[in-house]
Amino acid sequence: MQIQWLRSRFFSRYRIEILMGALIVEMLASPLADTHPRAGALLGFTVLLMLLAGLRYMANRAIVRQLGLPIAAIWMITRILEAFGNRREFYANLSPIVGLVLSCSILWAIFDHFRSESRNSRKPIVEAFISYLVIATAFSQLYWILNRFVDHAFNQTIRPTESGTFLYFSIVTLTSVGYGGIAPINPYVRMVAAFESVCGIFFIAVVVARLVSSYAPTRSPEANSRGRTFAATSQDRRTYLGKTQPVRLHA
Length: 251
Prior knowledge:
Order of helices and strands: HHHHHHHHH
Distance between the termini: 92 Å
CATH class: Mainly Alpha
Largest sheet: none
Number of domains: 1
Structural class: mainly alpha
Shape: globular
Number of strands: 0
């Protein structure tokens, strides 16, 4: 009975908040994942399962089912190869590439749901924050790819195992903080960083507009009905007053 109460009350009410907390914990524990790949893989699997479960309420289910789930399965395989394989081999470095595709598919599902049901969301602030974290993760995976295949991407050497460093640079770039400890020096990486800054500013503007529209007062059905009745009555009066009345002659 107690377990059923927890499932029906607590988790159903705070499932989105729990998902947000799991994403924050994963980001804070990203340096641990760099030094302990197996622990990082276990943490990544846990957060991914929670994310897929939470996307039922904040994303397009068809996109998640047809695109997100297959890519998530491939990502889990590549994550296992990364945790238990030789990092010098090519197959053990596919996780960020597949992760970028997975992050893009998740963002597509969230934004599609946002476009179709922007006023039906019960927790727009939490959902927007989760989307913000997913965007930062996607750009961090893109920086990993650029650092691997582009010469002198940053002003310091970042090893492929330092995923937390790429995530740190992505977050400070997305928020337009730019501490300057890590700076891109390659022209292509600079343009990607500039584009991420633009995305961060644009995302905040969209979230503010959504919050304003979500909390704007709406007219009740009774008020709409009274408004339509008043408009129809006013139109009838204007029509009546504007008509030419026939002149009657009395004998």
